[in-house]
Write a structure and sequence with these properties.
CATH superfamily: NAD(P)-binding Rossmann-like Domain
Number of strands: 9
Number of helices: 9
CATH architecture: 3-Layer(aba) Sandwich
Radius of gyration: 20 Å
Order of helices and strands: EHEHEHEEHEHEEHHEHH
Distance between the termini: 48 Å
Mean pLDDT: 91
Length: 285
């Protein structure tokens, strides 16, 4: 996307979940790159405390599960900066536990934020991008959005949904001059595995001790020892937006690259093994 000069700013970014973690780091990187940033989060005061005050920053209170708040936040961005060039749907949280251990309440709450909240914000922002005939929608998925694993099944299902939504957005928006990319971070050294970002299923079923139970234990050991550098992730987002032909998918981290390669190889092998049965279901010629 070509650089845009609007009010002296390179671009106008709209970032959800911007008060802490990856969202705040992306906001900081965008500001340092000469962009205006609409930083959205449940607590606008926490955004100002983290990012400071600046003519290039518009902090907005936004619960992404509230569609009316999403529309109001997008309108505030347009009134302040005149346009929205980049949307980063970053707000979300995780759920650790076997599928059977995950409660209906926790699963629905996570879907409301990770999937329906993302849709609320996207619908609120897209009219401005369509009017401009330019923009870039970036949806933050996960290593778990490409391959699910024991202990993160329901969480991964929300990110699988984000992957599908983004693929469709890419096809729908490209003719309008708007890009759509799903970003798939691996394990980055943030607070994602803390209680502030990760629900842990309260019920433990002993039969899953060797699968999801082992993942529960590993997550505790991995917390704040993850291999990914979140500052480098934020810098990569700037390069992504500056690209003339951005990808539909952007995996980040060598762990994600390895997971994608392993899944692709497994799917290819399994498909070949079952090809005869798979092909047998067509009407006879």
């Amino acid at each position: 996307m070509a650089a845009i000069q609007q009010g002296g700013f390179k671009r106008v970014w709209f970032i959800t979940g911007a008060s802490r973690g990856i969202g705040a780091l992306i906001a900081e990187a965008a500001l340092a790159d000469g962009n205006a940033v609409v930083a959205a989060g449940r607590n606008a005061a926490a955004i100002v405390e983290r990012l400071g005050e600046s003519a290039a920053l518009l902090p907005v209170a936004l619960d992404v599960t509230d569609e009316s708040q999403a529309r109001a936040a997008a309108q505030a961005a347009i009134e302040k900066f005149g346009r929205i060039d980049v949307l980063v749907n970053n707000a979300g949280f995780g759920l650790l536990g076997a599928v059977e251990e995950s409660t209906d309440k926790d699963a629905r709450r996570m879907y409301d934020t990770n999937v329906f909240g993302l849709l609320n914000v996207t619908r609120a922002v897209l009219p401005a991008m369509r009017a401009q005939r330019s923009g870039h929608v970036i949806n933050i998925s996960s290593i778990g959005g490409y391959r699910a694993a024991a202990g993160f099944g329901v969480y991964s299902s929300t990110k699988f949904a984000v992957e599908g939504i983004t693929e469709a957005l890419h096809a729908e928006l490209k003719p309008l001059g708007i890009h759509a990319t799903v970003v798939e971070p691996g394990y980055f050294r943030t607070d994602f595995l803390d209680a502030s970002s990760l629900l842990v299923a309260p019920d433990v079923i002993d039969d899953y001790a060797e699968t999801s139970g082992a993942v529960r234990h590993k997550a505790t050991q991995l917390n704040h020892n993850q291999p990914g550098d979140p500052v480098k992730l934020a810098a990569a987002m700037i390069k992504l937006v500056d690209a003339n032909d951005p990808p539909v998918r952007l995996p980040l981290g060598t762990d994600t690259l390895a997971a994608i390669a392993a899944k692709n190889a497994y799917v290819e092998q399994e498909t070949a093994a079952w090809r005869e049965l798979s092909a047998s279901t067509d009407f006879a010629a």
